[in-house]
Write a structure and sequence with these properties.
By secondary structure, the protein is mostly beta strands. The chain folds into 2 domains: 44 residues, no CATH class; 193 residues, Jelly Rolls, CATH 2.60.120. Helices cover 14% and strands 38% of the residues. The termini are far apart. 29% of the residues are buried. About 29% of the residues have low confidence.
Length: 284
């Protein structure tokens, strides 16, 4: 019996050496399929792992498409404007070419920025690359304004600007018919970063409207806001769309300029690219 056992052992040892070392090392390893892996994960965690499904191209979201987002984070379709191209509110048709135009190549003497810089506790303004860079420093709706002569009555002001950073409640826009440089009184033609325009008299809101379909809200996009006053009729336009027209008799003339009003600390930064004024005759 011992001789028979010894002969069997020698035979098995000789056959084992005929197999290459690599084949011998892996011949008893069982390949785990994707289904087996899912079963193992379920056994270890107690949770079932479903398959990863890639939707067809027609169902994949187009990342280049713009969209408006509500507070809940769900995409909503922006309302379509019905007022685009109204010639009755076009400043050039009403008044011709602009009487003043600031493009900020060397600061702006019209706004008192001939040196190209204003930096105080409220706002930093610097002329750079043919635009005014605005960095408000106070929040909670603190309004900074910058006005220029002349005093006008019937007329329009138009500001081209780009938002760099912006939070929902931050506002910017045009101040018209301000009686002086210091009080902050007048008509505010305002755009908020959530896509709402409004016309205010001092701190009183006269009217608001949804402007999401007109507002280019990506960082660096250029927008044009237009404020128009004819008699007691006030109109605000955004990128050519007339969005609000109301009537008020409080201020019949005054200075014009731009303003900022951030809600959060360091949430609003922007560039003013140009500022134009249209009118027939100045009051002074």
């Amino acid at each position: 019996m011992r001789i028979l056992f010894l002969m069997i052992f020698v035979s098995v040892f000789a056959i084992g050496h005929l197999i290459s070392p690599d084949d011998f090392r892996y011949q008893n390893i069982e390949l785990i399929t994707t289904e087996s892996a899912a079963e193992i994960e379920t056994a270890e965690t107690g949770e079932e792992s479903g398959p990863v499904i890639t939707p067809p191209a027609s169902f994949q979201e187009d990342e280049s498409a713009s969209r408006n987002v509500t507070d809940s984070g769900q995409a909503t379709e922006a309302p379509k404007s019905t007022n685009s191209g109204q010639t009755g509110t076009d400043p050039e048709i009403l008044f011709g070419t602009p009487k003043t135009e600031d493009t900020f190549e060397r600061g702006s003497s019209g706004f008192g920025l001939s040196a190209g810089l204003n930096d105080d506790e409220n706002i930093r303004i610097i002329a750079l690359n043919n635009r005014l860079s605005l960095e408000p420093k106070k929040d909670n709706g603190w309004i900074n304004w910058r006005l220029r002569p002349p005093v006008i009555n019937d007329g329009a002001a138009e500001m081209e600007f780009s938002i760099i950073t912006c939070a929902r409640g931050d506002r910017t826009g045009i101040l018209m018919h301000s009686p002086d440089y210091s009080s902050g009184q007048g008509y505010y033609f305002s755009l908020s970063c959530e896509g709402t325009v409004s016309i205010m008299k001092d701190s009183t809101v006269l009217s608001t409207a949804d402007a999401r379909s007109s507002f280019k809200n990506s960082s660096g996009d250029a927008n044009v806001i237009t404020a128009l006053i004819l008699g007691n009729q006030l109109t605000i336009k955004l990128n050519g769309d007339s969005l609000i027209t109301i009537q008020d008799d409080t201020y019949s003339e005054g200075f014009s300029g731009f303003f900022t009003s951030p809600q959060g600390q360091n949430t609003l930064t922007m560039d003013v690219i140009s500022f134009k004024e249209y009118y027939n005759e100045s009051v002074q």
